[in-house]
Amino acid sequence: MDKEYLRRAIALAEQNVRVGGGPFGAVIVKDGAIVGEGVNRVTATQDPTAHAEVVAIRAAGESLGTHDLSGCEIHASCEPCPMCWGAILWARMDRIFYAATQSDAAAAGFDDVNFYDELAKPAAQRRTPMVEALRDEGARPFAAWREFSGKVRY
Amino acid sequence: MDKEYLRRAIALAEQNVRVGGGPFGAVIVKDGAIVGEGVNRVTATQDPTAHAEVVAIRAAGESLGTHDLSGCEIHASCEPCPMCWGAILWARMDRIFYAATQSDAAAAGFDDVNFYDELAKPAAQRRTPMVEALRDEGARPFAAWREFSGKVRY
User: Which of residues 66-125 of B touch A (CB under 8 A)?
Assistant: First the structure.
C-alpha cells in the first residue's frame, strides 16, 4: 500500500471540516494514479448519500467513463459505513484502505456503528420497518429484464 | 400503506428496462405527495451508486431542500441492497416498502444476496480486503470536527 494516498484522504477530510463539511475524505487510485476524490458533502448539497466514498466513486466513474471500477483501490479517512461499503462492492473495487475506525466515527457522534448493528439484526427487528407487498407484481421488471436482449449487466 | 406508490415504483422499473436501464424503481412520499422518484441509472450514467433508491433520495433531498428525509417513506420495486438500505437510514426515512425480494433479484443475476452474505461475515473474511492503517493520523479530522463550532450534524 502507498500510505500517501491514505494521508491525502485524511488531509481532505480535515480540510473539509474547515469549510463546514463532515470529517471524511476518500481517494481512489488505479494503476498508480488518482482517478477520483471526494469529501463529505451531505449538508452542503442536501444529499444524504454524498459521503466521501460515494462522491469519490461518482468522480472515478465519470473520469474513467465506466461504472466498473475493478482494478481500483479506495483510500478512506475512516472505515466505510454500510452504504459506502455496498457502493464499493457494486463498483467492483479491489481493495479498501482506511485509517480511523467505525468506533472512532461513533465517538465523534456518527451512526456507522449503529447501522452495522442494525444490519446484523433480522429485518423484522430493525428500527426502520421494512414491509413487503405485491411481490408477484414486483416480478414483472425482472421478467422484462430477462427478455430484453440489449441489457447491460452490472 | 398506499399500494399505488409501490405499483408506480414497479411501473418505473419496468419502463426503465425498455430504455436500457436496470429493472429497479423507487418512489419517495411525504405527507401524501411524491417528493422524489428514481430508476436505476448505473450504466446510463457510469455511476455504480445510481441505484433507484439512491437516485430517488437525491431527488427528494433536492426537492425538499434538506438532507433530512424524516417523515418520508420509500416504495421500492425490490428490497433495497445494503448500499441503498444504508442510504435510507442516513436519510432518516420512516419506513421501507418493497415488492420483489433480494432473492428475486439474485435469481435475475444481481448481487444483492451475495453482498448481504458478505456483510454478515467478519471483515477479515470478506472477499474485498479491508486494510486498516494510520489510525492515529485518521483521528485528526474528528478532532477538527469536535472543535469546529459551525458544524452541521447529520
Answer: 66-69, 77-79, 81-101, 104-105, 107-109, 111, 115, 118-120
Catalytic residue set of B: 53
Statement: residue A33 has pLDDT above 90: yes
Half-sphere exposure of B128 (CA within 13 A, CB side): 25
Cβ-contact B6, B78 below 8 angstroms: no
B67 vs A87: CB contact, 8 Å cut-off?
Answer: no
- Cα B62 from Cα B65, distance rounded (Å): 5
**Among candidate residues A106, A104, A67, A105, the one with its CA nearest the CA of residue A89:** A67
Q: How many CB atoms lie within 10 A of CB A120?
A: 11
Amino acid at position B29, single letter: V
> What whole-number distance in Å separates Cα of residue A9 and Cα of residue A29?
11
Integer Cα distance of A38 and A12 in angstroms? 8
The answer, as to whether pTM is greater than 0.80, is yes
Q: Determine what percent of chain A falls in helix, strand and coil, rounding each to the nearest 5.
A: 45, 20, 35
Under 8 Å between Cβ of B81 and B89 = no
ipTM of the complex as predicted: 0.97
Torsions phi, psi for B100 (to 5 deg)? -70, 160
Chain segment B76-125, per-residue pLDDT in tens: 999 999 999 999 999 999 999 999 999 999 999 999 999 999 999 998 89
Provide the pLDDT confidence category of residue A123 given band limits of 50, 70 and 90: confident
Which residue of chain B is at minimal alpha-carbon distance from A72? B128
- Please, what sign has the CA dihedral across residues A25, B94, A87, A109? positive
